[in-house]
Amino acid sequence: MKRTFILFLIIFILPFICLGINPDREYILKPDAIGLDYKEMIINAGNATLKAWIIDPKTDTQKNTTIILAYPDAGNMSYFTYHASIFASHGYRVVTFDYRGFGESSDFEVERMNLYHDEFIEDLTSVVDKVSQTYKTDRIGIWGLSMGAVVAVQAYEQTKDHVDFMILEGLVTDIKVHASRLKQAKDVEINLPTDFQSYPQRLRTIDIPVIVFAGTEDTLTTTQDAIALSEEMKNMEVITYEGGHLRGFQAWEPQDFGQGYLARVTEFTQSF
């Protein structure tokens, strides 16, 4: 019953609370609760320490590929344990971590109405550095969701020597436009980062393979945005699905949570 409730929470509620930074300090599901082998790691990020979980591939068909999850602006990494299990069960190593102020990472005073904090960029950069040192023969990808996708873009300059590809969903292509949409649709005003005007150009400097998942019913990060960007960036592939913001994992076959998503990621990672 508890697992059913947690899966319900993850699938149906999480996409709708990502309208302001909303950390959760309590873990709702650790990997070993669903039979995953994992290790805990503490990663230094400037003056902060981050809690991370390393979830090793569950099958013998290891892909020598590590995926680092940069999740959205609510919850903590435990909200994505089921998501991680899908990849781990098909040969991927998955690294999840908590930004400072989330889960069991260092205390941090979060400004709820920020789009993100610059410190989250430092957090992701530090995780990439540690993972690249630990798994030197693996290809490394960042899986960025909504706020996590923005953070991944902003961190690219610092991580590009170690990151081989990106998987992005709920991708903001223009921060000012995104803020306007939030105001109009949800009556939410976010604090714009100081460098928001440079973000579109930073996005276009990414020169590694990128796959973007975009929902046809997502009015905040639209399929039109993603497709228009992909016409400029030939290294970008767009996968559209029927559904709203961050609903990609349940978009194809609801009874097979994440399998359609996994299949498209695997096709993508095998293409380069």
From TrEMBL:
Entry's transmembrane regions:
none
Q: What Pfam families does this protein map onto?
A: Hydrolase_4
Annotated GO molecular function terms are: hydrolase activity
Give the keywords, sorted. Answer: Hydrolase
Boundaries of each Serine aminopeptidase S33 domain copy?
Answer: 82-182
Name listed for the protein in its UniProt record: Alpha/beta fold hydrolase
Name its species: Fulvivirga kasyanovii
